[in-house]
Write a structure and sequence with these properties.
Length: 637
Amino acid sequence: MACCNIGKGLLLALLCGSTLAWGAKDKVKGPKAYGPVPTEQQVKWLRMEWYAFVHFGLNTYTGNEWGFGDESPALFNPSEFDAEEIVKTFKAAGMNGMIYTAKHHDGFCTWPTRSTSHNITKSPWKGGKGDVVREFSDACKKHDFPFGTYLSPWDRNCGEFGRPGYLKVYYKQIEELLTKYGPIFEIWFDGAIGGDGYYGGAREKRDIGEADKYYNYAQVVRNIRKLQKNCIIWGACGRGDVTWGGSEKGFVKQYPLWNVQGNRWISLEADTPINHRGWFWHQNQAGDVKKPEHLMDVYLSSVGRGGNLILNVAPNKNGRLDPADVASLNAFGEMRRKLLSRDYALRGKGKASSTYGKSFDAGKLTDGDIESYWCPKESDKSPSVEIELTKSCTFDVVRLREQIRLGQRVEAFQVDAWVDSDWKTIIQPGNPNEVEGNFDGIRGGKGHTIGNQVLRWLPEPVTTRKLRLTITRSKATPCISEFSLLCMPGVVQPESVESDAEEEPAEKPLRKSGWKFRGKTSSLAFDGKEETMWQSDKCPARFVVDLKQEHEISGFSYLPRQDGQTEGMTSRYRVELSADGKKWKKVSEGEFGNLRANPVEQIINFSPVEARYFRFTSTAALDGEGSSAAEIRIYGK
């Protein structure tokens, strides 16, 4: 069933967070629930499908992904921030809500909290009277747009972090966000939980040990349920309602997907930024926005595997969304609308191998009602349905849904189409030992689990009037609520946009010409190949580049290894420049954050310096004893 065929009333109810009329269905005796089942709020959350992430804070002004905690609140001054305009942009693109990073790891709170002085009241924005959380929440209320918030458990600013005293601060922040800003549809707790930081001036590394024990997430969950019982909880060491999809590239890491953890239903959420530069806005990022067709692959690998997708679109220093990001967002939104605009199976006639009863006949698969479902007799071990369409059609996407209110049941399915007077298998049944990962199976792929929904994009279009769905393996009597046939649209090209006024003229990477390298394998960090890398068996480790002539150098970029391994990824660095190779000037020192989850290129800018020699030092690295760099670019004139 395509989105546009749900029915205007039900669609409006879903988007506005209204309660679904499931109670009426309970009066008809059907199969008993199997295994863990989702809460009513989890069902509504899954039907939102995709929504916005908004990273916006001090990192926007420093260029960092993870602030250290000693950044001055005076940096935050978004002179053109308009929360309502941002919310309207998301809604126009077809998104169904937004989650805002009220506090990231640097500890800066973008609302006037009483829990810490490191907050927006110390900012010059609106004379210290501003409240970003308030402006976003009010804009969402005005436009009937669900609002959620992100609160980092890790606080690199607070002097009490890692000690019992921090819990009072942390719990107070949760309480404020859930009592002062109206309904919160989801609260997000990041998995980054400790390491080095400012910590009130201590400037040290702090290890909290077992996160679940330190934060007492059992108590955190109880507190949230008391304050807002319908709020979806992300993370909380598995005690919440939703967990991570396993990759910050936006896909649910593995298919088949089971929403069962122990005796609880736990849904998965995939997350990714719309821009390749990272979660926060970065200078001159317009050229690195992900294309609409890439975002469609992400959608099919997250929502299409039974999870949800949260797509980050970050405001710039002025508080505006980057025009290039918005153009790609709108183009993908239009592609998604077109994909869901017509369900060719709607009102098709179904003939089942068996039915549980009249109320569960095969016609329920194509009736446009997301709550009704076909269910075979319990004795039918390989149930099937033949569906005759209202007319012959051409499609290339198949969508299936289970009635998840009764639990997740299906392990494998098969779809056949009547082509040239014979049945042709267009989706092969999955095997329990087969697993799809990354972006595998975007085109093609087998029929494994269904759960909330599964979207299979066929290798080529199929033209037919008759199809057959067979459930080849199921843990209990299958309850299938939807069988839809959709057509993938052509790529919608983003509108041409002018460079954002906030963007500064981009410095370009210096062209390597006769450079000499001091340090074993260091030349491999400048060969333009992501698959090769500079490696050292120790850390700290360094190398020197002789550029052969002086340049005005204003920055560099670091790309960590791209082979799926983390050993030796440089997590902290120091860069020095020299005119003669003898006297060195330190121009930048800091951290490359979030490498494990999002190993993207990180660009570091600094005030221009005339120099011939470039010295890079890996002062700390992840895992093992070595250091590495896949690619380094030196920027300047």
